[in-house]
Write a structure and sequence with these properties.
The protein is α+β, with helices and mostly antiparallel strands. It has six helices and nine strands, in the order βααββαβββααβαββ. Strands 1, 2, 3, 4, 5, 6, 7, 8 and 9 form a nine-stranded antiparallel beta sheet that branches. Strand 5 and strand 6 (96-106) form a beta hairpin.
Length: 205
């Protein structure tokens, strides 16, 4: 396993979103390592993207997205859920990748308990809110650094390389209202993975 360097994140959100598929997302929580393999992501591109929180410029809420890459942007949604994004592009440019779903790999019993004792492992992290709940990501992690030394990071291994060559589907993003970038094909997923938030076919075009 090799941790992703800053140069990985210092690229546009579309490139990072695709290349994060197959990567490991790791959080050392209370001395235990929790890890998922990322199987679904979405790119958000700031002031050129009406679906982005940063569309209308920087605010106190979105300042992390405008900061340097290789940090987490964590936000609260629907009055009940946290969602985690990886900040990318260069410092001052608002781009980020939403971590939508992951396949549980390490600390599965703990993740299952954090999800209320859910029996079906496929549903532990199959959605952005489920993923953060399972991984113990919340408000305190907004702005967290993903580079060493740190307790949260992304990494790649030999499986990551194989996944990048195959099995990638690209679709419209999920859950956006009409006119807010809902037509942009900026969601990426492993098409044959049962751990995505919804079934996805490979785009062979």
């Amino acid at each position: 396993m090799a941790r992703l360097p800053k140069s990985f994140y210092a690229r546009d959100a579309l490139t990072v979103a695709r290349d994060l598929l197959g990567c490991l997302f790791v959080h050392v929580l209370d001395g235990e390592r929790l890890a998922v393999r990322l199987v679904e992501t979405e790119a958000y591109r700031g002031q050129i993207d009406p679906g982005s929180h940063g569309y209308r410029g920087p605010t106190a809420r979105t300042e992390v997205m405008y900061g340097p890459p290789a940090h987490l942007y964590v936000y609260f949604t629907y009055g009940m859920h946290w969602c985690a994004n990886v900040v990318c592009a260069r410092d001052g440019v608002c781009e980020a990748v939403l971590l939508r779903a992951g396949e549980p790999l390490e600390g599965i019993d703990t993740m299952r308990a954090r999800r209320g004792g859910i029996a079906n492992d496929r549903l532990i992290a199959s959605g952005p809110a489920r993923l953060t709940q399972a991984m113990g990501i919340a408000r305190a992690h907004n702005g967290a650094r993903l580079l060493a030394p740190c307790s949260i990071w992304c990494a790649e291994d030999s499986t990551t390389t194989a996944i990048r060559r195959l099995r990638i589907a690209q679709t419209k993003r999920i859950g956006l209202s009409a006119g807010r970038g809902d037509d942009l094909p900026w969601r990426f997923a492993l098409a044959d993975s049962p751990f995505t938030s919804r079934p996805t076919r490979v785009n062979r075009g």
